[in-house]
Design goal:
Layout (H helix, E strand, L loop, with lengths): L2 E6 L2 E6 L2 H8 L6 H17 L4 E3 H15 L1 H15 L5 E6 L5 H12 L4 E3 H11 L28 H27 L3 E5 L9 H4 L4 E7 L3 H12 L8 H6 L1 H17 L3 E4 L3 H16 L15
Parallel strand pairs: 1-3, 4-6, 4-7, 5-6, 7-8
Antiparallel strand pairs: 1-2
Helix pairs in contact: 1-2, 3-4, 4-12, 5-12, 6-7
């Protein structure tokens, strides 16, 4: 048994070395699942060969880094920088926006799995809470979908596209809940991924986004036919209540909201990713997070209770 010794807020702890936890951390370096597990197994064997039965968290990280450096210095560099992200005192808040059907939910799940994060909140769930608070008579827009909310606008604006006006009205209400979750996550130190169509650049308070630990992405599906196919895939699932016909009838307005989201992202310098290939999207997001939030390794920061 190899024991990993660490310290949290002045309290020492000891836990067994885990190849599974290490393999998950190695995947942040864009390694495939099999390769990550293979390297984790090799590292465990080397620890045993070196007759190491107890090692501190920081010494283990340095040990792993040196081993990775022999394989590929770029992998070692990404591992070190991810360690600095995990050791930061600040929680990591990731915002993933995109029009209906582009895959924000799927990417949030995959990203959480890659990064070892546990909290994912969809803006559709926030919207459902808001619907309980705000009656249909008081605000009919929130009781529609984001892409057909324009149908409930009582007095449409003259100079604003009706679809976009409805979308903006929809986002404005849900955004109250989004900002509240960001604020609480920061206050409580809880790393969180918030995903959904209501994550729109320019609509969330700037003072929240100015924090280096809050990172936003806008996903798209540039090819229209590929975008349509995503709805076919979604509607095959038994838990999806809306019919494929509903999405196809509103496909033009969905594409219009995507164009608006991209325009907003470009204005506010938010990374736009064409989600044509899921693995490539995850790799791009992970690299961006490490670049923006992962600085040099600092052993004086508080550690996290993981032997990776």
């Amino acid at each position: 048994m190899i024991w990993v010794v660490g310290n949290v807020d002045g309290n020492a702890y000891k836990e067994p070395f885990s190849k599974g936890v290490l393999a998950r951390s190695l995947r942040v370096s864009n390694l495939g699942l099999d390769e990550a597990h293979e390297i984790a197994n090799e590292i465990e064997e080397k620890l045993i060969d070196d007759d190491i039965t107890e090692i501190t968290v920081n010494d283990l990280a340095n040990y792993i880094s040196r081993y990775l450096n022999k394989i590929d210095p770029s992998i070692s560099s990404k591992y070190i920088r991810w360690r600095s992200v995990r050791k930061s005192d600040e929680p990591l808040i990731i915002l993933i926006g995109g029009a209906s059907g582009v895959g924000t939910s799927s990417m949030a799940f995959e990203l959480a799995n890659r990064l070892g994060l546990k909290n994912i909140i969809g803006t559709d769930m926030i919207r459902e809470v808001m619907r309980k608070i705000v009656s249909k008579e008081l605000n009919p827009v929130i009781h529609k979908s984001s892409f057909d909310a324009y149908e409930s606008i009582r007095t449409p604006a003259i100079r604003v596209d009706a679809v976009i006006e409805g979308f903006i009205s929809h986002v404005d209400v849900v955004n109250v809940g989004v900002e509240a979750i960001i604020e609480r996550s920061i206050k409580e130190g809880i790393s969180t991924i918030i995903e959904g169509v209501h994550i729109v650049p320019g609509f969330i308070r700037e003072d929240l986004l100015e924090k280096g630990n809050v990172i936003m992405f806008t996903l798209t599906v540039d090819d229209e036919e590929t975008h349509k196919q995503r709805f076919y895939t979604r509607c095959r699932q038994p838990w999806v209540k809306r019919s494929l016909e509903h999405y196809m009838e509103n496909f033009g307005t969905i594409r219009k909201t995507q164009n608006f989201l991209v325009d907003q992202a470009n204005i506010h310098n938010v990374h736009v990713i064409n989600n044509a290939d899921f693995r490539n999207t995850i790799d791009l997001m992970v690299n961006d997070i490490i670049e923006k939030f992962g600085g040099e390794n600092d052993d004086n920061q508080k550690g996290v209770r993981n032997n990776d």
